[in-house]
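#lab-general

N.A. 3:47 PM
ok so I finally got the sequence cleaned up, no stray characters, all 349 residues accounted for. can someone with queue access submit it? mine expired

B.Y. 3:52 PM
send it over

N.A. 3:53 PM
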Amino acid sequence: MELSYEETMRRIDEYEKEFSDIGLERKLCRKVSFPYHVDLYKGENQIIIVPLITSIGFVETAMAWYRQVKELNNAQLIGQIVLEALEHIRKSPVDARTRYERAEDSFMKHAVSYKSYKSFNKNYLLCGVILYEDGNIIVSQTRKLENNNGYGGNDETLIYLGATSSAEDIGNAVLESFTGMEKIYNKHQKEKRLVPRFEFETLSDLKVSFEIPQDDRYTDEEDYGTAEIYQGYSYRESEDDEESVSDMYFGTAAELDCDLSSDNVLSVFEKEYGKAVRYDYSPTEHEIFEFRAEITGNNIHRILYLKQIDSEELLSCELTLNTKRADKRLCGKLIKNFETLVASCKVLR
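B.Y. 4:20 PM
back already:
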């Protein structure tokens, strides 16, 4: 809702009287002053143009008036609506709405699909337009604060426009600002997606790299990195757990004695863990590994990826999962993590 000038002044008089009645002398803001600010939010295939105005408490707040633009590259249209927003500020009294009225008017309630501010902040970019009393305009980029807690300034990317700038000039400056922010945001997202890798070298000089598991519950145990195990990670649901739920590691699988036959793989398992309930052994299409074995026994689930490097060395990537300590959901998660680890393996040339 938009309040008339008369209603705005009436509310101010009423509020000031309420303060006076309790012995407080407080003067509220009665006049909008320069500079004028307009915010433009880009996300969900739209640009939302929102003018800001001074409240009776001398702070800026979003107005009830806003516009949604679907033609994302139409500089003339965007610039024209920005000028309309600035003119709307000029003609409006200060904001005397209640907190409830502002919440009901908010463009976030009516123009976006996100229910929380953090989600909105994560998915929308913000560009600001500032009009000064002499008619000069500044168009500014912003940067997203950590953990999607709002927007910060970016003084290094300001675009200055003169008092005679056209709607198209303003629109082009806005589009240039959004393009700059999108490049930075996309680069940041790409960097976040990059997972650090670990490299090891086998006894036969084969160099392998893989993506390090990113879940904090995986720990690099002290006994990994021995002669028979190159690198591995144990999963514990809490730091206090003495026994791991699962272990996944790269090693030489010395117990197989360089015999990759299906019968030998099953035989070695049953000697260690007892009779298998389910067993599958097949060739696999992988940059490194040649065979995949999956064996289920009493409270144990094992998956092995195997490769014969030479006559004296076998390379394995293994998962040992304690099914007694993990429910179906957690088992599925740990197996998926292991398969992701295997898929990330590459030979270093």
